[in-house]
Amino acid sequence: MMTELSSESVHGSCVAINGEAVLIEGPSGSGKSDLALRLIDRGAILVSDDYTFVQRHKGALQASAPATIKGQMEVRGLGIVPFNSIDSAPLALIVSISNQPDRLPLEVRHRRLCGMEVPLIQLPALEPSAPIKVELALKHRSEP
């Protein structure tokens, strides 16, 4: 019998927008931190960069940073930079970096973390409109 994990470490950056966590995942060099930085410039706050700890607690998922990297972000060309951050936020959306996402997705996708389904979208991280698309997806995440 397989048991559901109550916590997972995910290779991805995470920011909170209006108190809700958005986890940005993708391969190294795909633009996770760049997209997070642009979202922060638009008012988001850093939760974690590069690795995010996701924990199921009281029927919800919480995203947080490992203690060793809390409040820090690797900014390509500048190095490790300190940032204002929050300890944790409820996970509301996953952004999976993809250079060729579906143009018109027919259904809301999900990814299972810690035994719970989380809405997922695919975006090219370095597209100029990517931060706006993340905000729109978070706002409309329950719609197909």
Automatic annotation (TrEMBL):
Ranges of residues in domain HPr kinase/phosphorylase C-terminal: 7-125
Gene3D superfamilies recorded: P-loop containing nucleotide triphosphate hydrolases
Keyword Transmembrane helix in annotation: no
GO molecular-function term, one example from the UniProt record: phosphorelay sensor kinase activity
Keywords: Kinase, Transferase
Biological-process GO terms, alphabetical: regulation of carbohydrate metabolic process
Coiled coil (residue ranges): none
SUPFAM superfamilies reported in the protein's UniProt record: PEP carboxykinase-like
Domain of life: Bacteria
Name of one Pfam family that matches: Hpr_kinase_C
Entry protein name: Serine kinase of HPr protein (Carbohydrate metabolism regulator)
Phylogenetic lineage: Bacteria, Pseudomonadati, Pseudomonadota, Alphaproteobacteria, Sphingomonadales
